[in-house]
Write a structure and sequence with these properties.
Blueprint: H1 2-64, H2 68-121, H3 128-161
Helix pairs in contact: 1-2, 1-3, 2-3
């Protein structure tokens, strides 16, 4: 009985260690997500600034240049620069989205590994309530991540189509 109790205690300590590691990874993922969200917001602000500067430059060019040829040529050059900037911005957004997706996949892999370990270690009746508590905590973390992730993707999609 003492040996069984020691094994159970060792298993509980190991699961607690795994839980702490997972909490740390979750915190890091949330921090990364927040940083990426800030970066995306900064990109959208830059886009708005570029669009405003483009509009101001075009208004100034129309007011100063009377000749239609000069105005059309300046507008085409400006449009080319704007399109190139938009392309770069779109590439950066796509890269950030792929990074977030990669991190999400890594998160799911860690979750699967931990679930497999928990399934193999928490089959004893004495540890049932502890397992249920951990699963409920996991569900709440996943729900929090899912609640935040679709909003970001929907915002990104709307921002890209503008």
């Amino acid at each position: 009985d003492e040996e069984l109790l020691k094994r159970i205690q060792a298993t509980v300590v190991q699961v607690q260690g795994d839980y702490e590691k997972l909490s740390s990874v979750t915190g890091n993922l949330l921090d990364d997500r927040h940083q990426k969200q800030k970066d995306i917001e900064a990109l959208f602000q830059s886009l708005e600034r570029l669009e405003k500067e483009k509009a101001d430059k075009e208004d100034l060019a129309l007011g100063i240049n009377v000749k239609a040829d000069k105005t059309a040529l300046a507008g085409k050059v400006s449009r080319t620069q704007f399109d190139a900037s938009m392309e770069r911005l779109n590439e950066m957004i796509q890269e950030m989205l792929s990074r977030v997706t990669g991190q999400e996949q890594g998160w799911h892999q860690v979750q699967r590994q931990l679930s497999e370990e928990m399934d193999s270690k928490l089959d004893r009746l004495e540890l049932g309530p502890f397992r249920q508590q951990l699963e409920e905590h996991w569900k709440s973390i996943l729900e929090q991540l899912k609640e935040k992730a679709p909003q970001t993707e929907a915002d990104d999609a709307a921002g890209i189509k503008k």
